[in-house]
Amino acid sequence: MSNLLTSFIETNQPLIDKTLHDLIKDLKAPQPLKDAMLYSLQAGGKRVRPLYTLAVLKELDVQNEDAIIVASTIEMIHTYSLIHDDLPAMDNDDLRRGKPTNHIVFGEALAILAGDALITLVFGIIARLPNISPELKIALIDKFSFAAGAEGMVGGQVLDMLGEGQTLTLEQLEEIHLNKTGALLSYSILAGAIIANVSEEVMSALKEYAFHIGLAFQIQDDILDLEGTSEQLGKTAGKDLISQKNTYPSILTMEGAKKELQNRYNLAFHALESIQMQNGLLVEFANYITKRTK
To answer: Which residues have CB under 8 Å from 156's CB, separation 6+?
Structure first.
């Protein structure tokens, strides 16, 4: 990881962590519910999604006091999805980020409700932000609900479940991942662009970058599921193989998956080149995503 990206993460990750804690602790809600929400929010994680939102604004040289809150709400939605993914009815996992999963600690009912509370909380938080115009708040909420819902992350999860035990084409696998993983990651990038109120040209280039980097993120996940260890990943390694899930290595071979990973990186880089943003944080994030080991 470059010094530029390391410094950016070291500066902003603690701010995201504090914002997440403060947003939950001030809720007038039952303490067991807040404990379950905070347990998963504070379990660690790379914070890639909220950091991406802040990185876009940094690259565009735009400052907004509410940006850290918008970024943190994306981590809330991501965390809700992990809590629900780990449930016995879904992936049935006991380990997440190196710790017992939420339902193992708090029970299935409270885990489900903690996820429900996170997903419903974020839209009210955005609606009440004082430093973003009503028009841009509506745009954020609109794109967020799309990315997290039936036409995005949730729809992708359903397609992933339906595909278990079947042999999918590469196009079908990409459809799953563009929704399940890519939609929320793309929103993280576009949220920064929305807050900055960028031109159509910049928005279009960032959408293209987000499209390719979202697929690259999932390809690397699939590779790590086979090449990584549970200790490295903080979750059960080899779970995709056990669950008979379609992955990039299973369809393309490991060599083919690594070639496709590089191809997606190249396409993301070219998108940034078109708007002269090929030398900053967004390229460094692309390098990190395609070369990470956990």
So the answer is: 175, 176, 177, 178, 179, 180, 181, 182, 183
Contact (CB, 8 A) for 228 and 294: yes
Over range 180-208, report the average pLDDT. 96
Distance, in Å, from the CA atom of 212 to the CA atom of 274, rounded to the nearest integer, reads 15
pLDDT score, position 245: 78
The structure tokens listed for 73 are 């709400």
Judge contact between 140 and 73, C-beta under 8 A.
no
**Separation between Cα atoms, residue 204 and residue 191, nearest integer Å:** 13
Q: Which amino acid, residue 125?
A: I
Q: What is the pLDDT of residue 241?
A: 54
Average pLDDT rounded to a whole number, residues 259-288: 94
Query: CA 147 to CA 140: how far, in whole Å?
Result: 10
Q: How many CA atoms lie within 13 A of 35 on its CB side?
A: 8
Spatial CB neighbours of 33, under 8 Å, sequence gap ≥ 6: 110, 113, 114, 117
Q: Which of 139, 148, 141, 71 is nearest to 115 (CA)?
A: 148
Distance, in Å, from the CA atom of 225 to the CA atom of 244, rounded to the nearest integer, reads 13
| CATH architecture classification, 3-291 | Orthogonal Bundle (1.10)
State the pLDDT confidence band at 266, using cuts at 50, 70 and 90.
very high
Task: Give the H/E segment covering residue 161.
Answer: helix 153-163
**139 is written with which tokens?**
């745009």
DSSP H or E stretch at residue 93: none
Tokens at 228, concatenated? 């990584």
Q: Is the pLDDT of residue 246 over 90?
A: no
Domain boundary assignment for the chain: 3-291
- Burial class of residue 31, CB neighbours in 10 A (0-12, 13-18, 19+): exposed
Give residue-wise pLDDT tens across range 88-105: 999 899 999 889 999 999
